Amino acid sequence: MQAGPPTAPVPPFPPPRPETGPWPVVAAAATGVWAVLVTVPGQLVGWVVDQLVLVSGVDRSVAVWPVVALVTVLLVGAPTLALALLPRSPAVRATGRAWLAGTLVLGALTLLRALPPVHHEAYLAALAAAAALLALALARLARRRPSAPPVAAAPPASLRTPAGPDDGAAGAGGRAGRFGPVTLLAVAAGLASLLPWAWVGALGGAPETLLAGLAAAALGALAGVLLGPAFWAAFAVGTPPRPARLVLVGGLVAGVTLALLAAGAGQSGAHLPGLLLLPPLGFVLGALEAAARHAGRAAGPRPVRWLVGLALLGPLAFTDPEEITVLLATTRDVPFWVAVATGVAFAVAVLLAVGYGVLLARPRARAPRRGLAGLAAGALLAALVVVYAVPGQPGLHGERLLVVLREQADLTGIPAGAPGRAGRDARAAEVYRRLVATAERSQGDLRRELDRLRLHPTPYYLVNAIETDGGPAVRAWLAGRPEVARVLVSQQLRPLPAAAPPTRGEVPAPTGPTWNVSLIGADRVWSELGVTGAGVVVGSSDSGVDGRHPALAAGFRGGDDSWYDPWEHRPTPADRGGHGTHTVGSAVGRNGIGVAPGASWVGCVNLDRNLGSPARYLDCLQFMLAPFPPGGNPLTDGRPHRAPDVLTNSWGCPPVEGCDPGALRPATAALAAAGILVVAAAGNTGPYCGSIADPPAPYPDVLTVGAVDRARRLTEFSSRGPAVGGAAKPDLVAPGAGVPSAFPGGGYATLDGTSMATPQVAGAVALMWSANPALVGDLNRTRRILAETATPAGAPADAPCGGTRNLVGAGLVDAYAAVRAARAADLG
Question: Which intervals of the chain are annotated as region Disordered (predicted)?
């Protein structure tokens, strides 16, 4: 029985209209080159500007992408409009119409990048809706135009596909086709393009993956309208039509159109792979059109939809645009693997273009058989599943949400207690008790509801909050609950196909105190005052610590509550990135690199791959207030009497990681109430005024540290104040340019940054508290001594940003003077 109504016979194609000479073709070629030269650099410039803004720490400019869109539309739209209206050649006018429509689509879709990258699901939903609406609008406009000429006459029966179903329209304006061999070959090509992404990429959460699929499908539908039957009919001249013209000329024009579409398809960074992947697929589409016309049929829009949709699904679904960043580009992280997937997918696209062109577009090639096409598509689908499940990263790895509750613990009236560690321990215990009691009382109903919905809630107490699974719908529901203050996105890094190689130190071991240690007088504290920091514990929240490094191994406090890795749950101290090893070395390292070599250290990993999230920062700060054993429950198994004395924090939580300005404010307030001094880096986003913005650096109860060089001059990169609300920041400065310290593997490295300055101030506090244990936990007196003993630091002569207090704070930390003042302090 017949599967559907028979295909109408195809009338012969009328002889082509005489060309007007070579100039329309030359104009079309020049316009195509111009379109590519404007579009591709413009998209790269937009992404680079985004990255510079991210690295510099200034507020993200919403106007960047609208400006890129406007400039591209104006520069490319004018010549393509002329090409669509003026020449007499149908092929040239079809070229102009396709490129003009592609330019307008690019402009419209690029505007969506005004949405912050942290709200990726919202962007994908907007992309899917916008692409679908554009496809409907362009399809309606196409129906209003006069119908294109019908396709060429059917070839002899010997060249037709035997008993094969129709694969497209029965002519340029004919009936929609069924799922035939040409469509199956398009599916096979799309699956082949998707294979590299399934190998090296990782899916996000369920809502994110679903929305990425919808966006890819909508973009495929949009491509089907841009490269519909009327487009290909303009290049199918002759009786029968010449396959080479369809593949080479039509494919080239289609490739430029797809480049314009790709430029708008994806958030900043995620759109770059499509600029390289889609253009070669234009030649594949030309070969598929030629194959369909071997059987006397136009391919129709369905092959275009499948091929483009599947090709775009890779970068849209298997990458997170927030991770395609220069912050991760220094190691074999997501940017590296995206480049690998893009390169392999590009090679696949080129091979498909050549292979399909040779096999399907020869003058006397046989039309493709449905069975063989179906077998190819099925085999590639099976290969895709195997690649995703075995060498790939199966599962869902989406973002989580941090739900901050309105009620936060009341920490007023904490008794000061006895001076020194005994009083500090008593305060820490009371703070821990109040925080946990508040969390247990106020979170119960919400946690039960989240458990019922199987959203896997994780409670926090340092900030009264819950981390949970959920997409935009869950976020909207949570934000509407009366007990919820706000809902933040808690970033989750997607897994890599292979771990980045561990960083190693290449600098020789120092032969004595390093220059920075001597500059602040720490070596004089050891030699003249006999104080090395013994009895004081420094806590580090960073990328980890190489616990076997010869300068650090002896300083590890030990026990079952001195190390915590919430990312990978490694049982012993380790560090792949090196940043945490370097900072701990500057605080307490032996062999001349640390300010307080006699102090002990404990560690926590909050930056596994140089990106964090509000929840991972909280994990480590909670561990510092009340350490717990492996597998312990922070709310019930915490040991506040084992809290370190001073914390060094060479990190900040910017909006790209999900933090807002107040995200960690209750955490640092609680640590201060417990008598634990939080030392934090000012940031490396200078010389802009007001650039001390990312938590926790702006908070008043945090000791914020900027950076100077060997000549005691403020470094260009050191962030400036004032902080939010006009508070003067930083509080102090310390050496931060060319600082040598420990690095994983037993070696050493020299690094720049306020990250390097911060642990030296923490080390100076350790020396002060070791010299006078009664000062432990007395944060106000400690801060006052540090400020009063600081020495002048060089600042710009014009003293911008409201004066030198917002540049260098009280000045350069002087460990020697501070320890002498601490010893002489009257604590009666």
Answer: 148-172
What are the C-alpha distances in Å from 65 to residues 44, 61, 275, 542? 11, 9, 16, 34
Give, for 428, the enclosing helix (H) or strand (E): helix 421-452
**Residue linked to tokens 């079809």:** 94
- 3-state secondary structure at position 601: strand
CA distance 305 to 135: 11
pLDDT digits (tens, 9 = 90+) for 640-684: 999 999 999 999 998 888 899 999 999 999 999 999 999 999 999
Query: Cα separation of 811 and 94, whole Å?
Result: 69
Cα–Cα distance measured from residue 602 to residue 628, given in angstroms and rounded to the nearest whole number: 12
Nearest C-alpha neighbor of 609 from the set 332, 407, 320, 341: 332
| Cα angle, residue 86 at apex, residues 80 and 92 outer, rounded to 5° | 65
CA distance 398 to 204: 4
How does strand 600-605 pair with strand 537-542? parallel
Q: Nearest 10 degrees: CA dihedral of 214, 217, 223, 227? A: -150
Taking alpha carbons only, the member of 704, 696, 672 closest to residue 779 is: 672
pLDDT tens figures, 420-462 = 999 999 999 999 999 999 999 999 999 999 999 999 999 999 9
Q: How many CA atoms lie within 13 A of 508 on its CB side?
A: 3
- Give catalytic residues, as residue numbers: 542, 579, 755
What tens digit of pLDDT does each residue of 73-111 get?
Answer: 999 999 999 999 988 888 999 999 999 999 999 999 999
Query: Which spans in 650-753 are helix H?
Result: 665-673
CATH class held by domain 515-824: alpha beta
Q: At what angle do helices 90-110 and 120-144 cross, to 10 degrees?
A: 150
Question: What's the chain's length in residues?
Answer: 828
**684 Cα distance to chain centroid:** 19
Maximum Cα interatomic distance, the chain, rounded to a whole number of Å: 108
d(C-alpha 193, C-alpha 346), whole Å = 8
- Distance from C-alpha of 602 to C-alpha of 612, rounded to nearest angstrom: 19
What is the bridge-based pairing of β-strands 747-751 and 739-743?
antiparallel
Structure tokens at 762: 């923490």
Q: Where are the domains of the chain?
A: 23-395, 400-490, 515-824
Q: Where does residue 818 rank: exposed (0-12), middle (13-18), buried (19+ CB within 10 A)?
A: buried
Is the pTM higher than 0.85? yes
Give the Cα separation of 12 and 14 in Å (integer).
Answer: 6
Residue 733: left (phi > 0), alpha (psi -120 to 50), or beta? beta
Helices 120-144, 206-226: axis angle to 10 degrees equals 20
Residue where the block lists tokens 């970033």: 491
Q: Do residues 459 and 635 make contact, with C-beta atoms less than 8 angstroms apart?
A: yes
Record the tokens describing residue 427, joined without a space: 């305060």
For residue 605, what are the β-bridge partners?
542
Distances (CA, A) of 73 to 29, 38, 323: 18, 10, 29
Going by C-alpha positions, the residue among 398, 406, 541 that lies closest to residue 466 is: 406
Within a 10 A sphere around the Cβ of 711, how many other Cβ atoms? Answer: 9
Q: CA–CA separation, 565 vs 604, rounded Å? A: 6
Phi, psi angles (nearest 5°) of residue 705: -120, 130
